[in-house]
User: Fold this.
Amino acid sequence: MTDKEEREVLRRYLRQYLSAKRRKCDLERRRAQLQQDMQCPLGAVRYDGMPRSGSPSEGAAAFAYRIDEVEQRIRAQQAEMARAALEIMDIIDFLEPGSLEREVIEKRYMDGMGWHAIERDIPISRSQGSVYETRAIDTLRMYAKVRSMVGLGERGEET
Assistant:
């Protein structure tokens, strides 16, 4: 595996917390939509004077069941977020405390900040931020424990 491919594998691994966080937000949005749908009258009849055949609606019980199912998924996603956050923090702990490399990685992968926000917060340029991120990624790739956590295998070994 090339250096570039290894960096991408590590970046993808570091992104798992933000991905889990996004999925949780999606589920919460779906739950809110289902709750809103429950407030609307079900199977409202249109009175246009034309006879229609109809089938019974699912009713409020089906909405409650769906909401419960979504809430179970939200709880599972919260557990996934916590697991991912802890694993990523374990990896970040290999970087020097207080270093710019660590700060960039934390802001990028734990806080979900984009480059513009990082530029304003630290302050560094976008290109400097990219250099610090790559340096941090390369530093992390040197540790055997990090390599095994992200599935890179030992250095020089094909995975």
About this structure: The chain has seven helices and no strands. Helices lie at 3-14, 16-39, 60-92, 100-110, 115-121, 126-141, 144-150. The chain has a mean pLDDT of 85. The radius of gyration is 24 Å.
